[in-house]
Amino acid sequence: MKTLGFAAGVAATMTLLSSTSAFAVTEISWWHAMTGANNEVVDQLSKEFNESQSEYKVVPVFKGTYPETLNAGIAAFRAKQPPTIMQVFDAGTGTMMGAEGAIKPVAEILSMGGQAFDKSQYLPGIVAYYSKPDGTMLSFPYNSSSPILYYNKDIFQKAGLDVDNPPKTWGEVWDAAKKIKSSGAAPCGFTSTWLTWIHTENFAAWNNLSYGTNENGIGGTDVELKINAPAFVKHFQELADLAKDGTFKYGGRTSEAKQIFLAGECGIFTESSGGLGDIVKSGMNYGTGQLPYEADAAGAPQNTIPGGASLWIFAGLPEEQYKGVGAFFNFLSQTPIQARLHQVSGYLPVTLAAYEETKKSGFYDKNPAREIPIKQMMGKAPTENSKGVRLVNLPQVRDIQNEEYEKMLAGQQTAQQALDNIVARGNKAIQEAIGN
Amino acid sequence: MSPRVVFPNKILPYLLVAPQLAITLVFFYWPASQALRQSMLREDPFGLSSKFVWFANFKKVLSDPNYLNSIQVTAVFSIATAAVAMGTALLLAVMAEKVIRGRGVYRTLMIWPYAVAPAIAGMLWLFLFNPSIGSLAYGLRWLGINWDPLLDGEQAMVLVVAAASWKQISYNFLFFVAGLQAIPKTLIEAAAIDGAKPFKRFWTIVFPLLAPTTFFLLVVNTVYAFFDTFGIIHAVTGGGPGKATETLVYKVYNDGFVNLILGDSAAQSVILMVIVIALTAVQFRYVEKKVHYG
Fold this sequence. Notes:
The complex is a heterodimer.
Chain A: H1 2-21, E1 26-32, H2 36-52, E2 56-62, H3 66-78, E3 85-89, H4 93-98, H5 106-112, H6 124-129, E4 140-145, E5 147-152, H7 153-158, H8 170-183, E6 188-192, H9 197-206, H10 213-216, H11 230-244, E7 248-250, H12 257-262, E8 266-272, H13 276-281, E9 286-289, E10 307-313, H14 319-332, H15 335-345, H16 352-360, H17 363-366, H18 372-378, H19 394-409, H20 415-433
Parallel strand pairs in A: 1-2, 1-3, 6-7, 6-8
Antiparallel strand pairs in A: 3-10, 4-10, 5-8, 5-9
Helix pairs in contact in A: 5-14, 15-16, 19-20
Chain B: H1 12-38, E1 41-43, E2 50-52, H2 56-62, H3 65-98, H4 103-111, H5 118-128, H6 135-142, H7 153-181, H8 185-193, H9 198-227, H10 230-236, H11 248-258, H12 262-290
Helix pairs in contact in B: 1-12, 2-12, 3-7, 3-9, 5-7, 5-10, 7-9, 8-9, 9-12, 11-12
């Protein structure tokens, strides 16, 4: 922790030093959490923007993981030296929204860049997630993703399953997983990353079930969790039962299960659409499909909700910096840039025009996996259950879920007990976080 | 006792200690006072609104069953880590005494792991024992052990204890070797002439004479297990499964930096500060007097 603080201090000093050396150019610092290929995209975009004009200079700074970046930004704000732009992950959205007075709505900034801000240009499902209840867009969606299904075609073949038709419902997934296991095609049938984001938050939206009151927190911060309803209990009991003989294999709280799938240990896998890159790189003979849904849920499949991260702007900064951010975001929203971002990184395009352009270019005919998350998110107009999940302390609530799920999968409690505990502990934590 | 040296200059001594004092003030007292202040506040992560609540955060923390669980986890973890690290180090040090050729090389190799950063040590053990790709995990499964530290709390604890003690063995080894060298050979030889077997000689002569070193290491190892193992736990288990490996220090981090409940987190770190002060006092009061350095 000491080193973290120290590193943050050094980085802050560096930013200070570098900003004093520039005279005419307004510097815009961009704190982000992108690694590997996605980090290169960040650097490339900043470079292109800087070369396209001479008034502003975007300086990207890598700050560690998503939670580390959020913490660094909060600490910097408290020390009155915030960056201009900060990338915040989906679960941190509620935290940022709760901090009115610390942030400046992106809608205001975009209109300062010289162009009028037209919200209808942007993908509705994504924009709704990053907007206030009154519709004001608060942050700029930079990288959005949604969970989809991946499967190993070689394992499917060995198990005698239909290689071209991945399972569509959870019931079909369990049957296929059992067949993979019993036929010996692979030691495990099914694994998944993010039990919280995929099997709880998206499970609720995709099956049109309520996650919590107040439109899952979109309508207001006072939320009561509803995830111990029978449909959730059934789903998690099925997972827990399959875990007993290893048909379902747990990988970890975030993306760790990807290793298990890549190692060819499990045949079916649910994971973010943003995880496609590593699977392509591994050279596996893979297939993709929509996120499975519950066959007896009325109205399923509804729509999935976005994950990933968005860019937030701190309040109380000099006017020129806001103008610069406006110019930068308008630059990012250009169709060719969005289309390229989408095609290179696997994240969703932010604007409708970029989606149409990519579609026209025939990209999806060659890469059908890239269109699945967009279709999932845009297929139906979102209901009050499927606009997203927003809690002031969603990271904490996810932590509680992970702890209870782990106890359940270890056989220490049933799904009903786990979900009841989650609701009780989660509601208490939410009440404390909103100051009651 | 050598006679006391008296410096005639009145100001110079203060000037000489000033840099050290300044560092202590800026890096120790100031943050400590901030933690104390924060522990009595309840505020949002951004510090936009804060309320002074006296000891409410302490009351909340101490009545939280998860905090009590974490005390228990810390106790199990610390005792196990200290026992394994010291036991293994003592065994190796006694064995190293018997090595005649290549003693220097052997000792140097033993000291290496101490130079490995905690997070790296954690990653090494994580890879070795990863249920799907770890080579040692494969061996365990071959032996018929259902190895799954991701879900089995006890196995996860074994894994973090192993990683934490592995890193500390070198340090303990160094002190035990020094302690063993300070034991007069004549005592052991006399016992041998009287017919005492090696095991008997160890228990009746070597081990009691090593007691000051052992006691000193016990304190150092406890402090290590309490405060310096964050990196290992963060890398290997992240406190899970459930809350099976969430130690006090890890909980401070998790509540403060992940859950953003700064008041609770600060209250917990103040409690930890009290524990460190107590441990240090014990060390100075009882241990410093009894350990003989070379």
